[in-house]
Write a structure and sequence with these properties.
The protein has one domain. Helix content is about 65%, strand content about 0%. The protein is built from 13 helices and no strands. It has helices at about 20-45, 55-100, 110-135, 145-150, 155-165, 175-180, 195-200, 205-225, 230-255, 260-285, 290-310, 325-340, 365-370. The two termini are about 40 Å apart. Pfam families: Bestrophin_2.
Length: about 375
């Protein structure tokens, strides 16, 4: 079930170490030029220095704005992580339902029953992989880590991919575009929703369609008597409901960014504060105004840019959630569940072992000896 060929997370802008510094290079160059200009004018032409009381007044407002920006962005990041932790838990639960709790079908051979169980586990795994791609605006089924899991399902995404052979071919980026993305230049960044806008056929909702297929399987198991215990039936249906809740919750996080008015206002206030720094520092620092402005701007702008960096936690940047790792974890744990040999005719067989010491340390006698 696990697929070691799944692509690893990589920064779209090449931020291999997760540092925000590359995105700050252009702003810091602007600040350096500006502070040098103001310092030189004040030194050789006319003193432009003002009282630093404005630092205190504006600093309070900027601090509030940056605090709101950062806390809002991290709240979205943490909420995305909670949903994926819940997905791991629900996948484990459904895996146990299909592999351990479900009884043998009386009209199926053991080999066919085994293949059916493995297929159910693969379908559970396919939900997490499909959700990962959907959150990254990759709506098709032909991706390397997904195609073998859902290729047999009749879905909108499969039909759409068949009508567009180029659907997964990424356009080559020229040198200037790559450099622009690395430096965080906004007009150089690609639109992540481009694949959705270019689609000529309905894309559907692949994770939702997978939930529908899982619902059909659970209904059939209940009808066939494979889940005779009411609590097991409740667990299965509750897990399906939780999958739906996870899907809609992650979509809400993705599609509800900070209102644009807040983003613009906070950015403008921050930049106004940074650009006024040389005027307020010159009287005290003179030539040291230049490095002081650079250092202060780095601290202030770094907080602003970090909020933007983690606002969408489902991307491919180093600072985003490692969705590939979560999918691999789910695949590994489903493999662990499937590795258990369930003796349905003799459910207590694993207890009848000479390594089972039920009365240790009072007695070293094994279970068979005591029996």
């Amino acid at each position: 079930m696990a697929d070691d060929g799944a692509p690893a997370a990589s920064g779209a802008g090449g931020h291999d170490d997760g540092s925000i510094l590359p995105r700050l290079l252009v702003p810091l160059i602007i600040v350096t030029i500006w502070s040098t200009l103001i310092t030189c004018l004040s030194k050789f032409v006319y003193n432009l220095g003002v009282q630093s009381i404005l630092l205190t007044v504006l600093g309070f407002v900027v601090g509030l704005g940056l605090s709101f920006r950062s806390s809002t962005a991290y709240e979205r990041y943490a909420e995305g992580r909670r949903y994926w932790a819940q997905l791991i838990h629900v996948s484990q639960t459904l895996g146990r339902v299909f592999w351990i709790h479900a009884k043998e079908h009386p009209e199926l051979a053991k080999k066919d029953m085994m293949l059916r169980r493995v297929s159910c586990l693969n379908l559970v795994l396919s939900f997490s992989v499909a959700l990962k791609h959907k959150l990254r605006f990759e709506p098709y089924t032909v991706y390397e880590d997904l195609q073998h899991l859902v290729g047999h399902l009749n879905t909108f995404a499969k039909t759409a991919a068949a009508t567009d052979p180029q659907c997964t071919t990424l356009p080559k980026k020229n040198f200037f575009k790559e450099v622009g993305e690395y430096l965080g230049v906004s007009f150089a960044e690609s639109n992540p929703r481009k694949a959705l806008k270019k689609a000529t056929y309905p894309l559907g909702n692949l994770p939702l369609e997978i939930i529908s297929h899982l619902s059909v399987i659970v209904d059939a198991m209940v009808a066939d008597g494979q889940l005779p215990v009411p609590m097991q039936q409740t667990t299965a249906y509750t897990s399906l409901t939780l999958l739906n809740d996870i899907m809609t919750g992650t979509e809400r996080v993705l599609n509800t960014p900070l209102p644009i008015a807040y983003s613009i206002a906070i950015a403008q206030i921050t930049w106004l504060y940074v650009l006024l720094l040389p005027f307020q520092l010159y009287k005290t620092l003179e030539w040291i105004t230049i490095p002081a402005c650079i250092a202060a701007s780095y601290i202030i702008l770094a907080i602003l840019f970090i909020g933007k960096e983690i606002e969408n936690p489902f991307g491919r940047d180093v600072n985003d959630l490692p969705l590939e790792g979560y999918c691999e974890q789910i695949a590994h744990e489903l493999d662990v569940i499937a590795a258990m040999d369930v003796h349905r005719d003799m459910p207590y067989a694993f207890l009848d072992s000479h390594l089972n010491l039920p009365l240790y340390p009072v007695s070293m006698a094994s279970f068979p000896r005591l029996g």
